[in-house]
Amino acid sequence: MADSHPLQSVEAALAAMLADVAPLKAERIECDRAAGRVLAETVTATLDVPPFDNSAMDGYALHHADSSRTLPVTQRITAGTPPAPLKRGECARIFTGGEMPSGADCVVMQEAVTLTDSGIRLPAAIAAGNNVRRRGRDVAMGSPLLSAGQWLEAAALGHLAGQGITEVMVRRRPRVALLSTGDEIVSPGQPLEPGQIYNSNRPMLARLLTRFGAEVLPPVTVPDNAGETRRLLGEAAETADVVVTTGGVSVGEADHVKAAVGELGQLDLWRIAMRPGKPLALGRLPRVHQTGEARFVGLPGNPVSTFVGGWLFLRPLLGALLDCPKLAELPALTARAAFAAEAGPRRHFMRVRLEFGSEGIMAHAFGDQNSAVLTSCIEADALAVIPERGRVNEGEPVRCLWLQMP
Ligand SMILES: Nc1nc2c(c(=O)[nH]1)N[C@H]1C(S)=C(S)[C@@H](COP(=O)(O)OP(=O)(O)OC[C@H]3O[C@@H](n4cnc5c(N)ncnc54)[C@H](O)[C@@H]3O)O[C@H]1N2
Ligand code: MOO
User: Fold this and answer.
1) Which of 69, 291, 360, 393 has the most CB atoms at less than 10 Å from its CB?
2) Looking at the CA of 273, which ligand is closest?
3) Could you tell me the maximum CA-CA distance found in the chain, to the nearest angstrom?
4) Ligand 2 contact via 305 beta carbon (within 6 Å)
5) How far is the CA of 299 from the centre of ligand 2 (A)?
6) Tens of pLDDT along the chain (406 residues)?
7) Of 328, 348, 375, which one is at a domain's C-terminal end?
């Protein structure tokens, strides 16, 4: 009976799921297509950035010993033009990014000088190094630029380009098959018959998985039939690294997923002490025609259970397959609860909106926390964690898992 089946802790379930996950192979791709991918190699800088000392301001380059004098302007240096050496007692007109001429060691902003008939009158006491961006200040040649496991987003892509790099080794994207179970499930675009509902889990999970770095395979709908469930799960395992189902993992008579996984492969774990998402199931499906096996994650059908299960289980699983620690771990923060809540034997993951105010961070819980109420996820920035049999009173600190991308 289901109720005699012990509930596993979230930690035990995560540990079991991640115990023997090996990172996927690496592949070389163009940097232009590398956004949202995970670096599979450590990249070493082959260039200093910036490659030469240059001016941080539009102004005049000089030697600091010439401070407070009036100097003739003997050259004009724009970004991209090589400078000539500068003699003592001269200054150079220079613009932001322009290379410092030898003989100069500081730059005075143009707003700080006075133009006179005999030259540029300089302010007193200009320090050496003033307004100069030193060669290698950002990146020193030979130093690690980016480490393996780096999630590639805007700044990292800029860093690679700054080295003139056009291709990088990244992890292959995990292929995820998404199977929606249930006779009542209909795809948007089709007419809705009595008793049917539209499939909201598929696009929601597809979006989450894409953001977590996966390649989502074409949609599969699974009827409430044991034979078809087995066939479609087996078929999915042939091409997918991860097979995710929604629905059909509870104790209803039409819940065929767990049995099918057990028959085809191995059901590692079922029922977790979490709310929502209690009937979540984990396992593996061996491939018949290909080598290896696919990971199986069975998410409960209620849309909120699917959403929360996606963040708490699919994200770490993809993080392990992609060997990306920052993807694997959800960042946690402590906020003040703008609500009171109590948890039973299951840890409660409440959908909250975070308000960043002068007094700190407040967590506002959505009013209806039922696992069928997807509205609770729309504005959710975080999951507030109420420990098993724990309680949080209004105004007290509460740990929150931030629903943020790496
Ligand atoms: N007697 C018991 N009944 C239930 C238990 C239990 O312990 N004993 N657990 C409840 C909990 S908690 C959950 S969560 C659900 C999960 O059940 P399943 O995973 O078997 O999911 P289904 O029954 O197939 O569906 C649940 C619910 O979600 C709707 N659904 C399913 N797929 C989709 C979809 N793709 N898009 C939108 N909505 C979907 C489905 O129509 C159901 O309303 O079981 C409880 N029952
Ligand atoms: O575990 Mo369920 O998602 O609470 O309704």
Assistant:
1) 69
2) 2
3) 97
4) yes
5) 10
6) 456 688 999 999 999 999 999 999 999 999 999 999 999 999 999 999 999 999 999 999 999 999 999 999 999 999 999 999 999 999 999 999 999 999 999 999 999 999 999 999 999 989 999 999 999 999 999 999 999 999 999 999 999 999 999 999 999 999 999 999 999 999 999 999 999 999 999 999 999 999 999 999 999 999 999 999 999 999 999 999 999 999 999 888 888 999 999 999 999 999 999 999 999 999 999 999 989 999 999 999 999 999 999 999 999 999 999 999 999 999 999 999 999 999 999 999 999 999 999 989 999 999 999 999 999 999 999 999 999 999 999 999 999 999 998 8
7) 328
* Nearest-angstrom CA–CA distance, 244 and 120: 71
Say which CATH number the domain at 14 has: 3.40.980.10
User: Does the N-terminal peptide bond of residue 276 adopt cis geometry, omega within 30 degrees of 0?
Assistant: yes
What is the dihedral sign for C-alpha 23, 24, 28, 31?
A: negative
Judgement on whether residues 111 and 253 belong to the same structural domain of the protein: no
Identify the domain containing residue 341 by its residue range. 332-402
Please tell me if the CB atom of residue 199 comes closer than 6 angstroms to any atom of ligand 1.
yes
Last residue of a domain, one of 85, 105, 133: 133
For 68: left if phi > 0, alpha if psi spans -120 to 50, otherwise beta; the answer is: left
Give the count of domains, the chain. 4
Question: 149 and 129 in one domain?
Answer: no
Q: Which atom of ligand 2 is nearest to the CA of 277?
A: 1
Residue 259 and residue 157 share a domain: no
Cα 16 to ligand 1 centre (Å):
24
CA distance 102 to 352: 58
Q: Give 277 Cα–ligand 1 centroid separation in angstroms.
A: 9
| DSSP-derived pairing of the beta strands 119-121 and 114-116 | antiparallel
The response to whether residue 298 sits with its C-beta less than 6 Å from ligand 1 reads no
The response to whether residue 113 sits with its C-beta less than 6 Å from ligand 1 reads no
| Residue owning the nearest CA to atom 43 of ligand 1 | 302
Instruction: Decide: 229 in ligand 1 pocket, CB within 6 A.
Output: no
